[in-house]
Amino acid sequence: MSQYPTSFDRDDLLKCARGELFGEGNAQLPEPPMLMMDRITDISGDGGLHGKGHVVAEFDIKPDLWFFDCHFPGNPIMPGCLGLDGLWQLTGFNLGWRGWQGRGYALGVGEVKLTGMVRPDRKMLTYKIDFTKALQTRRLTMGVADGIVEADGEVIYVVKDMKVALSES
């Protein structure tokens, strides 16, 4: 289905952030510190719970990550919006991985439930995304997916109906 591998290390993700993986003007990840994953361990366009694609990725939690110093002093917690952004980043990455053209942008999310926190003593986040829809027409390229974030194996975020699109403009 794709000309790209099904796993990516940090160097590959940084190439994507520089526009070197999918080509200039196409899906791109942010650079650190906003890059919210260290590796993608599995990706497909026809796997997952619905057979419409999936992504599994990991983010190593280190006590010196930039957001712990400012959110909140004396009570360090990773902002929940950063975990959501990681899910959006990976959803857009999957669209670029499929070979679809355009720059990615988040369109929204249907439902978000945060049931746990990421503190500096956590070791790793695991993102799991399952596409419910992936479509490319003359007017629209979009993925819709559900996702979870696990911290050291414990589910802490559940997201339904994330929407990410690619646009050539």
Automatic annotation (TrEMBL):
InterPro entries according to UniProt: FabA, FabA_FabZ, HotDog_dom_sf
EC id: 4.2.1.59
Entry's Gene Ontology cellular component terms: cytoplasm
Matches recorded under Gene3D superfamilies: Hotdog Thioesterase (3.10.129.10)
Entry keyword annotation includes Cytoplasm: yes
GO molecular function: (3R)-hydroxyacyl-[acyl-carrier-protein] dehydratase activity; isomerase activity
A Pfam cross-reference name: FabA
SUPFAM superfamilies: Thioesterase/thiol ester dehydrase-isomerase (SSF54637)
Catalysed reactions, semicolon-separated: a (3R)-hydroxyacyl-[ACP] = a (2E)-enoyl-[ACP] + H2O
Stated family: Belongs to the thioester dehydratase family. FabA subfamily.
PANTHER family: 3-HYDROXYACYL-[ACYL-CARRIER-PROTEIN] DEHYDRATASE, 3-HYDROXYDECANOYL-[ACYL-CARRIER-PROTEIN] DEHYDRATASE
Annotated protein name in UniProt: 3-hydroxyacyl-[acyl-carrier-protein] dehydratase FabA
Organism expressing this protein natively: Jannaschia donghaensis
Gene: fabA
